Request: fold
Amino acid sequence: MTMLRSLGALAAGAALAVGAASGLASAADDTAITIYSSARPGGISPDLYRPIPGGGTPNAMAVPGYAMVRHERPVQLASGRSTLRFADVAGLIDPTTVTFTSLTDPATRVLEQNFQFDLVSSEKLLLKYIDRPITVERQQGNQSVQLTGTLLSAVDGLVLRGNDGTIHSLRDYSALRFPELPGGLITRPTLEWLITAPRAGEQRARVTYQTGGITWWADYNLIFKEGRDANSGLLDLSAWVSIINQSGTTYPDAKLKLIAGDVHRAPTPEVAMPRGAVMMASKAMEDDSAGFDQKAFFEFHLYTLGRRTTLPNNATKQIELFDQARQIPARKVLVYYGLVGNYGWGAPMTERELGLPMNTKVDVYLEFNNDKQAGLGVPFPAGRVRVSQLDVADGSLEFIGEDAIDHTPKDEKVRVKLGSAFDVVGERRAVDFSVDSKARWMEEEIEVKLRNRKDEAVEVIVRENLYRWSNWKVTSRSQEFEKLDARTIHFPVRIAKGGEAVVRYRVRYSW
Reply:
């Protein structure tokens, strides 16, 4: 069942009426938006981009972010009390955050404000038209016939009483025609104020509010080039801001700011929210080269775009965060951790075996310094890092891994996990274990073997978690180690091409 085309025209006419009531002059409008992201680094689920199987659309409230929106525009006010409406506001607005200020006359005051969100729909129209006349179109063969009558019921189809008193029960129809839009229904979310002004005339007003359904994060693209050995290389890095707008309105030609950092908000109860709309991708292609200007702002970082941009509703947009950096020195770090997970107990772990499978994978990381010497030295907002490498055989870029990073200040190290090495494997076993519960000590000897099947030497960090108890001492070792924290030690190991290396150490626990 579909609504008649005239219903769309009726809705459009109602929207114009709301706009006219607000007294807006769009040519003088000015919009600014500051977006705060609470998205998990790495963006959001691709499910938010896709229609739900069987119909429906993704949930706009699943977009984990919010924004502060500021509209400035001229308005026409009458002397004394008058009603002012803004119809082009976000559908996911938090009405408790709305402020209205007259920039022209501080004596202009708001007495009351309302947020109206009872939007028109076919179901609501039918309920409003109970005991009122409507026109129904039906298909009979190749012809369209019309039936006009009083709507008696809209439950399980339509029940109409014709002009001659005949009762019609209809389940199948092609369209409905309504004489007008009934009162109380609106076509767009609308802010309404009861205002008192000392004099009539045009004033410039600023409206500020907070809305959900909008977020941003950073996307970093790295191109890796192998260096002089298996553990070094060079990176080209480009950074983009990705913005998703599902707030329910478009922000045309807006001043854009982004806040990076963990801004705390008071928790709110979880409630069922309305469904959003499907998003379509668009990419910022402005010719103006003005990019983001970054500065410290309280304990966060503020990014201000040096040009205006439009954020369409139900769309994603990408804007370059900073200029591409090239030839960044990078280090490939291989880490072997034979235990599965991290362990720490409230009492000494005196069992010989954990009963868990041994890990044989050697993890691969890329590591680089975010400093001026490397051509960077800028704050990195949280985001997703994708790494590719050039295949010299055909000149194509091939994806080799991705990871997510948290907010990273300048002069800090960035480490990106890419996966597990194919040609380097490890094995870990306890070769000796003894315990004396009365004397309150135990000893364990661990052996780690690493095999390198590559045609060049590699360096691997052997990570060991001394999980059995917090008071420990390494009594013997095959090579030097670094104490990373209270329970973790690292053994740096170099393995010749096609070779094998063994790490062996003995640790004594006491309590």
Q: What stands out?
A: The two ends are 76 Å apart (CA to CA).
